[in-house]
Amino acid sequence: MKTKPHPVRPKLSKTKKVKAKVKQLRDKVLQQEKLNFLLTNRVPRLLVTRFMGRFSKVEQPLVRGLSLKAWKLFTDLDLSDAKQTRFKSVHDCFTRELKPGARPIDPNPRVLSSPCDGIVGQCGVIRGQQIYQAKGFPYSATELFGNGDEAAKYEGGCYVTLRLRSDMYHRFHAPYDCRIRHVTYISGDTWNVNPIALKRVEKLFCKNERAAIRCELEPGGPQVTLVAVAAILVASIRLHCLGTVFHPRYKGPNEITCDAGYRKGDEFGWFEHGSTILVFAPKGFTLADGIEEGREIRMGHRLIDMRAS
Asked: Which residues participate in catalysis according to the annotation?
Protein backbone atom coordinates (compact mmCIF):
# COMPACT_ATOMS: atom_id res chain seq x y z
CA MET A 1 0.00 0.00 0.00
CA LYS A 2 1.44 3.32 -1.09
CA THR A 3 1.63 6.08 1.48
CA LYS A 4 0.60 9.56 0.49
CA PRO A 5 3.44 12.05 0.51
CA HIS A 6 3.20 14.74 3.16
CA PRO A 7 2.26 18.13 1.73
CA VAL A 8 5.22 20.42 1.41
CA ARG A 9 4.73 23.58 3.46
CA PRO A 10 6.02 26.75 1.86
CA LYS A 11 9.07 28.13 3.58
CA LEU A 12 8.57 31.42 5.36
CA SER A 13 10.97 34.26 4.71
CA LYS A 14 13.05 35.53 7.62
CA THR A 15 10.89 38.68 7.81
CA LYS A 16 7.69 36.65 8.03
CA LYS A 17 9.21 34.36 10.67
CA VAL A 18 10.22 37.34 12.79
CA LYS A 19 6.78 38.90 12.38
CA ALA A 20 5.09 35.64 13.34
CA LYS A 21 7.21 35.36 16.51
CA VAL A 22 6.55 38.99 17.43
CA LYS A 23 2.81 38.44 17.03
CA GLN A 24 2.98 35.32 19.21
CA LEU A 25 4.76 37.37 21.89
CA ARG A 26 2.26 40.21 21.49
CA ASP A 27 -0.68 37.82 21.88
CA LYS A 28 0.86 36.31 25.02
CA VAL A 29 1.28 39.77 26.54
CA LEU A 30 -2.28 40.74 25.62
CA GLN A 31 -3.58 37.57 27.27
CA GLN A 32 -1.88 38.57 30.53
CA GLU A 33 -4.55 41.03 31.64
CA LYS A 34 -2.68 42.43 34.66
CA LEU A 35 0.49 43.04 32.65
CA ASN A 36 -1.48 44.53 29.75
CA PHE A 37 -3.30 46.90 32.10
CA LEU A 38 -0.07 47.99 33.81
CA LEU A 39 1.76 48.62 30.52
CA THR A 40 -1.07 50.63 28.95
CA ASN A 41 -2.54 52.46 31.94
CA ARG A 42 -0.21 52.64 34.95
CA VAL A 43 2.02 55.11 33.16
CA PRO A 44 1.92 58.94 33.03
CA ARG A 45 -0.87 58.79 30.43
CA LEU A 46 -1.12 62.46 29.50
CA LEU A 47 2.65 62.84 29.25
CA VAL A 48 3.02 59.71 27.10
CA THR A 49 0.12 60.86 24.91
CA ARG A 50 1.64 64.32 24.44
CA PHE A 51 5.01 62.81 23.51
CA MET A 52 3.42 60.38 21.04
CA GLY A 53 1.46 63.21 19.44
CA ARG A 54 4.68 65.09 18.70
CA PHE A 55 6.73 62.03 17.77
CA SER A 56 4.12 60.74 15.30
CA LYS A 57 4.44 63.96 13.28
CA VAL A 58 8.21 63.70 12.78
CA GLU A 59 8.85 63.60 9.03
CA GLN A 60 12.50 62.53 9.14
CA PRO A 61 12.66 59.58 6.67
CA LEU A 62 14.59 57.18 8.93
CA VAL A 63 12.36 57.82 11.97
CA ARG A 64 9.23 57.57 9.85
CA GLY A 65 10.37 54.36 8.14
CA LEU A 66 11.39 52.55 11.32
CA SER A 67 8.21 53.64 13.11
CA LEU A 68 5.96 52.37 10.33
CA LYS A 69 7.83 49.07 10.21
CA ALA A 70 7.45 48.62 13.97
CA TRP A 71 3.75 49.46 13.73
CA LYS A 72 3.22 46.88 10.99
CA LEU A 73 5.24 44.34 12.97
CA PHE A 74 3.13 44.62 16.13
CA THR A 75 -0.31 45.02 14.53
CA ASP A 76 -2.37 43.79 11.59
CA LEU A 77 -2.03 47.09 9.74
CA ASP A 78 -3.40 46.77 6.20
CA LEU A 79 -2.83 49.68 3.83
CA SER A 80 -4.17 47.99 0.70
CA ASP A 81 -7.28 50.21 0.69
CA ALA A 82 -5.40 53.46 1.46
CA LYS A 83 -5.67 56.28 -1.06
CA GLN A 84 -1.92 56.84 -0.99
CA THR A 85 0.96 54.44 -0.46
CA ARG A 86 3.61 56.89 0.75
CA PHE A 87 3.28 58.79 4.02
CA LYS A 88 5.16 61.83 5.34
CA SER A 89 4.95 60.62 8.94
CA VAL A 90 3.29 58.08 11.22
CA HIS A 91 0.58 60.68 11.89
CA ASP A 92 0.00 60.94 8.14
CA CYS A 93 -0.56 57.18 8.06
CA PHE A 94 -2.81 57.23 11.17
CA THR A 95 -5.13 59.75 9.53
CA ARG A 96 -4.99 58.24 6.04
CA GLU A 97 -7.81 58.53 3.53
CA LEU A 98 -9.23 55.54 1.68
CA LYS A 99 -9.53 54.79 -2.01
CA PRO A 100 -12.86 55.88 -3.53
CA GLY A 101 -15.44 53.12 -3.05
CA ALA A 102 -13.42 51.30 -0.38
CA ARG A 103 -16.34 51.64 2.08
CA PRO A 104 -19.74 51.26 0.38
CA ILE A 105 -22.46 53.20 2.24
CA ASP A 106 -25.73 51.37 2.92
CA PRO A 107 -28.22 53.18 0.63
CA ASN A 108 -31.36 52.17 2.56
CA PRO A 109 -33.14 55.39 3.67
CA ARG A 110 -34.33 53.58 6.83
CA VAL A 111 -30.81 52.76 8.00
CA LEU A 112 -28.20 54.63 10.03
CA SER A 113 -24.84 53.42 8.78
CA SER A 114 -21.78 52.89 10.93
CA PRO A 115 -19.79 56.14 11.21
CA CYS A 116 -16.47 54.31 11.41
CA ASP A 117 -14.62 51.03 11.20
CA GLY A 118 -14.76 49.33 14.57
CA ILE A 119 -15.42 46.39 16.84
CA VAL A 120 -18.87 46.39 18.42
CA GLY A 121 -18.69 46.63 22.20
CA GLN A 122 -21.62 46.90 24.57
CA CYS A 123 -24.88 47.89 22.86
CA GLY A 124 -28.62 47.74 23.43
CA VAL A 125 -31.57 49.68 24.82
CA ILE A 126 -31.11 52.62 27.21
CA ARG A 127 -33.25 52.21 30.33
CA GLY A 128 -33.13 54.69 33.19
CA GLN A 129 -30.28 56.42 31.33
CA GLN A 130 -28.12 53.38 32.13
CA ILE A 131 -25.48 52.25 29.66
CA TYR A 132 -22.75 49.62 29.96
CA GLN A 133 -19.07 49.84 29.08
CA ALA A 134 -18.59 46.17 30.03
CA LYS A 135 -20.72 43.56 31.76
CA GLY A 136 -21.33 44.70 35.33
CA PHE A 137 -19.85 48.17 34.67
CA PRO A 138 -22.71 50.63 34.10
CA TYR A 139 -22.58 54.40 33.73
CA SER A 140 -25.22 57.03 33.03
CA ALA A 141 -25.90 58.98 29.86
CA THR A 142 -25.95 62.18 31.94
CA GLU A 143 -22.38 61.57 33.13
CA LEU A 144 -21.25 60.86 29.58
CA PHE A 145 -22.95 63.87 27.93
CA GLY A 146 -22.40 66.17 30.88
CA ASN A 147 -26.01 67.31 30.39
CA GLY A 148 -29.07 65.63 31.88
CA ASP A 149 -31.54 67.24 29.46
CA GLU A 150 -29.65 65.89 26.45
CA ALA A 151 -29.30 62.45 28.01
CA ALA A 152 -33.06 62.29 28.68
CA LYS A 153 -33.76 62.48 24.94
CA TYR A 154 -32.40 58.96 24.53
CA GLU A 155 -34.42 57.22 27.24
CA GLY A 156 -35.82 54.07 25.67
CA GLY A 157 -33.60 54.49 22.64
CA CYS A 158 -30.55 52.45 21.70
CA TYR A 159 -26.78 52.82 21.70
CA VAL A 160 -23.78 51.11 20.11
CA THR A 161 -20.16 51.24 21.24
CA LEU A 162 -17.62 51.05 18.40
CA ARG A 163 -13.97 50.55 19.39
CA LEU A 164 -11.23 51.38 16.91
CA ARG A 165 -7.97 49.43 17.04
CA SER A 166 -4.76 51.32 16.33
CA ASP A 167 -4.38 49.65 12.91
CA MET A 168 -7.89 50.58 11.72
CA TYR A 169 -9.04 53.44 9.51
CA HIS A 170 -9.42 56.41 11.89
CA ARG A 171 -11.79 58.80 10.14
CA PHE A 172 -15.47 58.93 11.04
CA HIS A 173 -18.46 59.88 8.90
CA ALA A 174 -22.10 60.96 8.90
CA PRO A 175 -24.40 57.99 9.65
CA TYR A 176 -27.25 59.68 7.76
CA ASP A 177 -28.17 62.91 5.96
CA CYS A 178 -27.93 65.38 8.81
CA ARG A 179 -26.89 68.73 10.20
CA ILE A 180 -24.47 69.02 13.10
CA ARG A 181 -26.22 71.46 15.45
CA HIS A 182 -24.05 71.43 18.56
CA VAL A 183 -20.77 70.05 19.88
CA THR A 184 -19.95 69.63 23.57
CA TYR A 185 -16.28 69.12 24.38
CA ILE A 186 -15.34 67.65 27.76
CA SER A 187 -11.67 67.57 28.71
CA GLY A 188 -10.48 64.54 30.63
CA ASP A 189 -8.04 61.70 31.11
CA THR A 190 -6.58 59.32 28.52
CA TRP A 191 -7.22 55.82 29.87
CA ASN A 192 -6.81 52.99 27.40
CA VAL A 193 -10.23 51.93 26.08
CA ASN A 194 -9.44 48.28 25.37
CA PRO A 195 -11.68 45.55 26.90
CA ILE A 196 -9.23 44.91 29.75
CA ALA A 197 -9.38 48.53 30.94
CA LEU A 198 -13.16 48.66 30.49
CA LYS A 199 -13.49 45.76 32.93
CA ARG A 200 -11.29 47.47 35.53
CA VAL A 201 -11.90 51.22 35.44
CA GLU A 202 -15.42 52.26 36.44
CA LYS A 203 -17.13 54.87 34.25
CA LEU A 204 -14.07 55.02 32.01
CA PHE A 205 -15.80 56.77 29.09
CA CYS A 206 -17.02 59.46 31.51
CA LYS A 207 -13.44 60.11 32.65
CA ASN A 208 -11.75 60.39 29.27
CA GLU A 209 -11.56 63.34 26.91
CA ARG A 210 -14.57 63.33 24.58
CA ALA A 211 -16.75 65.31 22.19
CA ALA A 212 -20.53 64.86 21.94
CA ILE A 213 -21.69 65.68 18.40
CA ARG A 214 -25.43 66.36 18.16
CA CYS A 215 -26.89 65.73 14.71
CA GLU A 216 -30.37 66.56 13.44
CA LEU A 217 -31.48 64.08 10.80
CA GLU A 218 -32.73 65.65 7.61
CA PRO A 219 -35.26 67.06 6.99
CA GLY A 220 -36.03 68.34 10.48
CA GLY A 221 -35.98 64.84 11.88
CA PRO A 222 -34.98 63.41 15.26
CA GLN A 223 -31.62 63.92 16.93
CA VAL A 224 -28.79 61.40 16.92
CA THR A 225 -25.61 61.93 18.94
CA LEU A 226 -22.12 60.59 18.31
CA VAL A 227 -19.72 60.69 21.26
CA ALA A 228 -16.09 60.50 20.18
CA VAL A 229 -13.97 59.31 23.13
CA ALA A 230 -10.20 59.79 23.03
CA ALA A 231 -7.66 57.52 24.74
CA ILE A 232 -3.98 57.05 25.52
CA LEU A 233 -1.73 57.95 22.55
CA VAL A 234 -4.77 59.60 20.91
CA ALA A 235 -6.30 62.54 22.78
CA SER A 236 -6.83 64.54 19.60
CA ILE A 237 -10.19 64.75 17.83
CA ARG A 238 -10.55 66.83 14.68
CA LEU A 239 -13.96 68.08 13.49
CA HIS A 240 -14.12 69.65 10.04
CA CYS A 241 -17.28 71.65 10.81
CA LEU A 242 -15.40 73.62 13.48
CA GLY A 243 -11.92 73.62 11.97
CA THR A 244 -10.84 72.62 15.46
CA VAL A 245 -8.64 69.94 16.98
CA PHE A 246 -9.71 69.03 20.52
CA HIS A 247 -6.86 67.89 22.80
CA PRO A 248 -6.00 68.04 26.54
CA ARG A 249 -4.50 71.53 26.16
CA TYR A 250 -7.48 72.95 24.25
CA LYS A 251 -8.50 76.32 25.76
CA GLY A 252 -11.52 77.20 23.61
CA PRO A 253 -15.27 77.06 24.42
CA ASN A 254 -16.76 73.78 25.57
CA GLU A 255 -20.28 74.36 24.24
CA ILE A 256 -20.18 75.17 20.53
CA THR A 257 -23.22 75.89 18.36
CA CYS A 258 -22.90 74.66 14.80
CA ASP A 259 -24.91 74.42 11.58
CA ALA A 260 -23.10 72.18 9.11
CA GLY A 261 -24.90 69.93 6.62
CA TYR A 262 -23.70 66.48 5.62
CA ARG A 263 -24.87 63.70 3.33
CA LYS A 264 -24.78 60.10 4.52
CA GLY A 265 -21.17 58.91 4.44
CA ASP A 266 -19.60 62.39 4.32
CA GLU A 267 -16.54 62.77 6.52
CA PHE A 268 -17.01 64.41 9.94
CA GLY A 269 -13.38 64.29 11.08
CA TRP A 270 -10.82 61.92 12.55
CA PHE A 271 -8.98 60.58 15.57
CA GLU A 272 -5.22 60.92 15.52
CA HIS A 273 -4.69 57.23 16.35
CA GLY A 274 -7.73 55.16 17.33
CA SER A 275 -10.32 55.13 20.07
CA THR A 276 -14.09 54.76 20.51
CA ILE A 277 -17.28 56.22 19.07
CA LEU A 278 -20.63 55.73 20.80
CA VAL A 279 -23.75 56.19 18.69
CA PHE A 280 -27.05 57.16 20.39
CA ALA A 281 -30.47 57.05 18.70
CA PRO A 282 -33.82 57.95 20.30
CA LYS A 283 -36.80 55.76 21.13
CA GLY A 284 -38.22 53.99 18.10
CA PHE A 285 -34.81 53.18 16.61
CA THR A 286 -33.48 49.61 16.92
CA LEU A 287 -30.15 47.88 16.45
CA ALA A 288 -29.80 46.26 13.04
CA ASP A 289 -29.74 42.47 12.80
CA GLY A 290 -26.35 41.01 13.62
CA ILE A 291 -25.06 44.00 15.58
CA GLU A 292 -23.68 42.32 18.68
CA GLU A 293 -20.66 42.46 20.94
CA GLY A 294 -17.41 41.34 19.31
CA ARG A 295 -18.46 41.83 15.71
CA GLU A 296 -16.09 43.79 13.49
CA ILE A 297 -17.80 46.13 11.04
CA ARG A 298 -16.74 48.79 8.58
CA MET A 299 -17.80 52.35 8.03
CA GLY A 300 -21.00 52.49 5.97
CA HIS A 301 -22.33 49.14 7.22
CA ARG A 302 -25.93 48.93 8.41
CA LEU A 303 -25.92 49.79 12.13
CA ILE A 304 -29.30 51.06 13.37
CA ASP A 305 -32.77 50.78 11.80
CA MET A 306 -35.07 53.79 11.84
CA ARG A 307 -38.75 53.80 12.81
CA ALA A 308 -41.23 53.16 10.01
CA SER A 309 -43.12 56.46 10.49
From this structure: 117, 173, 275
